């Protein structure tokens, strides 16, 4: 069932915006620079549909931009481009689920992308706000004559998590992963490790603005996506949760090697 509501009466992205604001407070403006302001792109000129990446039509252009950005070898550029893409794409979905049980639908035809050889490599936005919600969501008590938001009502939390997995992973990221693996020797486990770490980082970075135990939220999302075995959370002496990857994004192979804070080879 799809219900249309008026933007003057409802703001489906308000909880996501609050969580993104919390990330900016903790980490600075660059920490949310890979997302279009307000998440929706009002004018698509200069943007491409994510379907062009899922089909492979524009994937080489993205990988070339990553090589320019980092001076990386082709396989490392692909791994780092994928890491950036999966983080920015997953962030609105996981923050929406964690903050208010609202999941923006991220099928490739709903997402717009632009990229460059500079910072940020990628910026993602939505053509339109289409959000999966539970029957108890207070947005369903509002309505109006101007159709600006689409709400898709799902039966329960299990279906909401299944919707998150389908729109984020099955429909969007897996086709792009297949195209990347046609071009490189990167393994599926390595690439899915970046999905897992992106989800975990997104939740831990916004923990101040999210209800419920952070570790439990991360565990639920990773289990729903089938990547729970690819990262662990470690409690720092300060009490904060740190993300530890079990796979590597290959940043250590750059001309100026980088060892990420949660890298599995950090001890080396």
Key features of this structure:
alpha+beta, four-stranded mixed β-sheet, 43% helix, 7 helices, 268 residues, globular, Transferase(Phosphotransferase), domain 1, disordered N terminus
In short:
This protein has helices at residues 14-27, 51-54, 59-70, 74-100, 157-183, 188-205, 214-225; strands at residues 2-5, 35-40, 48-49, 102-104, 111-115, 122-126, 129-133, 149-153, 231-235, 241-245.
Can you walk me through this structure?
With 268 residues, this protein is of the alpha+beta class. The protein has a single domain, classed as Transferase(Phosphotransferase), domain 1 (Orthogonal Bundle). Helix 4 runs antiparallel to helix 5, helix 4 packs across helix 6 and helix 6 runs antiparallel to helix 7. The chain is globular and about 50 Å long. It starts with a strand and ends in a 23-residue tail after the last strand.
How many E strands?
Answer: 10
Q: What is the rounded Rg?
A: 18 Å
Q: What is the highest CATH level, the class?
A: Mainly Alpha
Q: Percent of residues in helical segments?
A: 40-55%
- Largest sheet: number of strands, sense, barrel closure: 4 strands, mixed
Average pLDDT figure: 86
What is the terminal separation in angstroms?
52 Å
Give me the number of helical elements.
7
Total count of domains = 1
The stretches of 5 or more residues where confidence is low (pLDDT under 50) are: 1-10
CATH hierarchy: architecture: Orthogonal Bundle
Q: What proportion of the residues form beta strands (DSSP E)?
A: 15-25%
The CATH topology: Transferase(Phosphotransferase), domain 1
The helix-strand sequence is: EHEEHHHEEEEEHHHEE
Q: Which structural class should the secondary elements be placed in? A: alpha+beta
General form = globular
* Strand arrangement, major sheet: 1-8-7-4
């Amino acid at each position: 069932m799809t219900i249309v509501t008026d933007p003057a009466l409802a703001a489906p992205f308000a909880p996501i915006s609050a969580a993104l604001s919390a990330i900016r407070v903790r980490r600075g403006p660059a920490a949310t620079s890979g997302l279009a302001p307000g998440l929706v792109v009002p004018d698509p000129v200069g943007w491409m549909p994510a379907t062009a990446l899922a089909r492979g039509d524009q994937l080489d252009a993205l990988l070339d931009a990553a090589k320019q950005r980092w001076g990386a070898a082709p396989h490392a550029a692909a791994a780092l481009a994928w890491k950036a893409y999966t983080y920015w794409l997953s962030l609105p979905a996981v923050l929406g689920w964690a903050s208010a049980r609202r999941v923006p639908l991220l099928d490739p035809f709903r997402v717009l992308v632009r990229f460059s050889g500079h910072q940020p490599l990628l910026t993602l936005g939505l053509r339109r706000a289409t959000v999966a919600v539970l029957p108890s969501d207070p947005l369903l008590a509002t309505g109006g004559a101007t159709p600006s938001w689409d709400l898709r009502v799902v039966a329960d939390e299990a279906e909401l998590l299944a919707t998150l997995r389908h729109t984020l992973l099955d429909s969007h990221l897996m086709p792009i992963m297949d195209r990347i693996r046609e071009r490189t020797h990167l393994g599926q486990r390595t690439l899915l490790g970046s999905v897992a770490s992106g989800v975990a980082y997104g939740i831990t970075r916004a923990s101040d603005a999210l209800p419920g135990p952070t570790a439990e939220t991360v565990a639920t999302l990773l289990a729903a996506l089938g990547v729970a075995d690819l990262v662990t959370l470690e409690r720092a002496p300060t009490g904060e949760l740190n993300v530890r990857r079990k796979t590597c994004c290959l940043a250590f192979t750059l001309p100026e090697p980088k060892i990420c804070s949660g890298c599995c080879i950090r001890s080396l």
